[in-house]
Amino acid sequence: MTWLVTGGAGYIGSHVARAFLDSGIDVVVIDDLSSGHEGFVPEGAVLERGSLVDAGFVERVFDEHPVTGVVHLAGFKYAGVSVQRPLHTYTQNVTATVNLLSAMQNHEVPSIVFSSSAAVYGNAPAEFVTEATATTPESPYGETKLIGEWLIADQAVASGLRHTALRYFNVVGSATPVVSDTSPHNLFPLVFRALLAGQTPKIFGDDYPTPDGTCVRDYVHVADVAAAHVAAAQKLDAGETLAPAYNLGSGSGVSVREIMSEMAAVTGIDFTPEVLAARPGDPARIVASGELATGDGLWMPHHTLTEMIASAWQAATHAG
């Protein structure tokens, strides 16, 4: 059994690849290293460096490896930036998915676990987002993730493809000090880089309709997210039918300001964040119920917020 992990040199993808290897499943990674790192690819995984936008490259990878399933994480993942770069976002997230599904069909690969996002919900009005909540994305990034779900579902009707999508919320923490979140846009690495440089961390917007005016998010540990991918893959391999999409959420929200306070406590660095203008495309609140995924045996969050911050800080300081 060999699973292809697209984006497997990235922060989340490398954790997923490690979790598969730890479960005794062989891994091939596709990554163009535009945001991933070759050093993040775990020992034992095969790295194929290239882009999913290159259909010929994708076909070659499937020609050369006995792929039995795919976890599709690769993509352009920055909601705010996608507002300024919609064409790039659609190419990286939609065209690439078409190429991947085409190669899967040509090579009769039966299963895919898709990395989706809470961004498909947009600024959801519900107190807790469930899989039944209306999908109203507010950024090109969120739109492309929803289109990816549609593409996979349509291909399943046409070909019998076994599939599910895992809608992530804010993925943080680390399962190993050698892999850290290096995104130039995510909250945790932004704060840690500022602290390590002796600078003041920034909050983007404090006039949202939330209790303290800052965005409220649902934070989940990357190791728990990786374990959910393995569980989904194993169920698809066993021929089980899964729901089209699952939320990987904790059911509780934390504001950006609250995160900053906990970071000060964990790192031992006292600071008062600087408040800047809100970024376009950022919803005020996204908190999700993970009950469906838990009930189907895919999801169980095991880490506290303090543990998430502490493990992320350890990885950030190890890398720095």
**CATH fold group of the largest domain:** Rossmann fold
Distance between the terminal alpha carbons, to the nearest Å?
36 Å
CATH superfamily of the largest domain: NAD(P)-binding Rossmann-like Domain
Shape: globular
Q: Give the CATH class of the largest domain.
A: Alpha Beta
| Total beta-strand segments | 14
List key phrases describing it.
Rossmann fold, 10 helices, 14 strands, UDP-galactose 4-epimerase, domain 1, 40% helix, alpha/beta, 320 residues, single chain, three-stranded mixed beta sheet
Structure explained in plain terms:
This protein is of the alpha/beta class. The protein has two domains: 2-171 and 219-248, NAD(P)-binding Rossmann-like Domain (Rossmann fold, 3-Layer(aba) Sandwich), CATH 3.40.50; 173-217 and 250-319, UDP-galactose 4-epimerase, domain 1. It has helices at 11-22, 55-64, 79-84, 86-106, 140-159, 187-196, 222-237, 256-267, 291-295, 305-319; strands at 2-6, 26-31, 46-49, 69-72, 111-117, 162-168, 170-172, 202-204, 216-217, 219-221, 245-248, 254-255, 274-276, 285-286. Strands 3-2-1-4-5-6-11 form a seven-stranded parallel beta sheet, sandwiched between helices. It has a three-stranded mixed beta sheet with strand order 12-9-14. The protein is globular. The two termini are 36 Å apart. The mean pLDDT is 95.
